[in-house]
């Protein structure tokens, strides 16, 4: 299969949501990915690898926080990146064959960035607070949606004239401004 794909200049990718595989022309994938990069202006191709520069800055920042006693030794240990495990984030795409023209869904894999351990640490601190206060307005998955609709019906809110709608937000992650997102997080944490 791999030989035939390579010979025919095809790419085999798992699809978005359905879990099935899609065979596409590699030139089409490249064109769609480039069109997406140009449309959103959210991604750039790097001329050099900034991984070690970012790594050094993270180490410097964490050590500075520790020297000023803003974090404890065990917190530093939890957040410090492991040199042998880090890698630069990268962009890849998966097809959405259920949509017209089979657009591509961009995914940034940043699981091993120098900042990953900091993110995990902060998530463990913030997630319980967020879940406690946002649970009533958050639907986790399809099962949760069904339970919410059943409760809605039981409370008499689901009637024949009830309208349900769905939203398809295009380019959600590239539309979220980082500074504004941080301001919202700070406001949330100050409130709760």
UniProtKB/TrEMBL annotation:
Residues 75-192 form the Reverse transcriptase domain. InterPro entries: RT_dom. PROSITE patterns: RT_POL (PS50878). Signal peptide: none annotated. This is Reverse transcriptase domain-containing protein. It comes from Rotaria socialis.
